[in-house]
């Protein structure tokens, strides 16, 4: 290239114009690259925040608070079991008392986690405090019923009236106050996860689109710079700028892929993991309360019909079949129909889901025999059935639900780990990509500017 020289101390219009245009185009290119990396940082930071809230903070804590309902309902069920045993089942009575203490500890731990999750929300903190106060009152009432029962020394079956009256006060407090409050706590805390997911499901795709736009603009600016330099200096494209363009394209493709993977991880963790785990936790809690209703059915003859209806309502909430009474429900459960809804409806597909449904049918079949004995006045046999085959069938059913929940918990953990792993890789490589592309742009532009010095 031939340069036009002027007298010392002056520069030609070409000398002034070409370096200026190179600097302007280079500045625009650098700005577009900065915009790309800012979009990548914002998108990955938003996705990481969603994964942290759902996978590490609020999500696990919400599932823990769902265990509060199970612990409270099991406490009341164990008290009912002890009262109906009388003096005929010393080992079973000791086991039920031990389980009561264990579930009380679980409930206290769940309340602590619920308090942590409530943050600065005064309504949720008030609910937690109310449950704590109510739990203390329940323990006093239940302890009074257990003490009166122990003093009475009655045979297996309904205890004396004073014991029943004392237990009524305790179970009414549990079923009408504490359990609804515990359920509301889970619902309220679940809104944190749902709100976070909805927010990230909206913003992460937008930021991914911003990355695409910024990346296309950056690549276009790099190509513009290369074409300008090639035409102005009548040379082939510079290898440094070609490498910078390829590196930018790689950063764009990798960033878009990671954000897409993170969005899929959030979706899988929420829909296939968290939602199912929470649903199964609720189903286990309600099912446990159903089992308690069986003991209460034997314990309180005056309220037997009420406890039979509540058992039916809870059964239909877990696995719904259209039925007007418990006998009709039992028939539909045992016919093998798959036309059902309820909490477990979406969860009963696949091998483990079918195993859980089969275990549920076995449990309901033992309930038929249990009620037949109770209605026939065979109280001792009904108590034996309740503490034997019914408990065995329920334990198998509960374990099937637990295995199903563990499967979904595995899906949840794998999704969170995969999303965080992809982000960690991106954040590890991003600084090197920024530095390498910046050096390549400088290496491609600086030699051309030096020709004008």
UniProtKB/TrEMBL annotation:
Domain of life: Bacteria
UniProt keyword list: Membrane, Transmembrane, Transmembrane helix
Listed transmembrane segments: 20-42, 210-230, 236-260, 422-445
UniProt-recorded name of the protein: Secreted protein
Organism of provenance: Nonomuraea longispora
